[in-house]
Write a structure and sequence with these properties.
Elements lengths: L15 E5 L4 H12 L3 E6 L2 H11 L3 E5 L8 H12 L4 E4 L14 H29 L2 E6 L12 H21 L4 E8 L5 H7 L3 H9 L9 H12 L10 E4 L8
Parallel strand pairs: 1-2, 1-4, 2-3, 4-5, 5-6, 6-7
Helix pairs in contact: 1-8, 4-5
């Protein structure tokens, strides 16, 4: 090892990253960080205006495709379109999600299923269709956005917590199936991050924010870029021997009190 390897060991030059839920929040931050690290990026999401605005901030080497990943009948066409227009997908970030804050006894089967369809079924279908190309090229990185709800109990989010916990099972199984083909599969578990969504959740509820800060050893919320740069690391050659891992980016919250 010598200094000439740095910072190139963290470079994503030559990679094509597809980021679902890439128009806002953590997904946008991941796309921006990967783009800054040299990757070309394609943002996938349901809302074109948000996707277009996010791509505009990045400029050349960034594009978007409008698609709802729960519409699995159209996922094959999405992958084909991206491949034809931009080339082979070498990095997939399964970040798209759906949140539901509701007591377990009040959560209906359909509400539960809607959350599972986004985090698990939609992500699996996209992964299933992208993986063969990665296998053929013996090169690829797949990253899932997990959650603190994957690691410990949080009230009023039974569907979300179940989906994020199932996601970790998918990460571990995929890593055992795909790693011998040169494809690494990992997850990031963000803690409480300062996003538009979290600001809305905290609005008018200072006690909730104070509770979160008090149980976070670093005593602050994270920045979306903290997650973005963690994703760059996992996708880069620096993490070439890292697979099946869950990386908390949480200011120490998962360590407990």
């Amino acid at each position: 090892m010598n200094s000439s390897e740095f910072p190139g060991i963290f470079s994503l030059k030559g990679e094509l990253a597809v980021v679902t839920g890439g128009g806002t929040g953590i997904g946008q931050a991941i796309a921006q960080a990967m783009h800054a690290a040299g990757a070309r990026v394609v943002l996938v999401g349901r809302r074109e205006a948000e996707l277009a605005a996010a791509v505009k901030t990045m400029g050349e080497g960034a594009a978007y495709a409008v698609h709802d990943i729960t519409e699995t009948a159209g996922t094959g066409a999405l992958v084909q379109r991206i491949t034809q227009e931009h080339g082979s997908i070498t990095c997939l970030v399964n970040n798209a999600g759906r949140h539901l804050k509701k007591a377990a006894v009040d959560t209906t089967p359909q509400e539960f299923l809607d959350v599972i369809n986004t985090h698990i079924i939609g992500a699996h279908e996209l992964t299933r269709l992208v993986a063969p190309g990665m296998i053929e090229r013996k090169h690829g990185s797949i990253i899932f956005t997990a959650s603190m709800a994957s690691l410990f109990g949080i009230p009023l989010v039974v569907a979300y917590a179940s989906a994020k916990s199932a996601m970790l099972g998918m990460v571990r199984t995929l890593s055992t199936e795909l790693s011998s083909h040169g494809i690494r599969v990992n997850a990031i578990a963000p803690g409480w991050i300062d996003t538009d969504m979290s600001r809305k959740a905290f609005a008018g509820d200072p006690a909730r924010k104070n509770k979160i800060i008090s149980r976070t050893p670093m005593a602050k919320l994270g920045d979306v870029s903290d997650v973005g740069w963690a994703a760059v690391y996992l996708a880069s050659p620096a993490a070439k021997f890292v697979t099946g891992a869950v990386l908390p980016v949480d200011g120490g919250a998962s360590m407990g009190f």
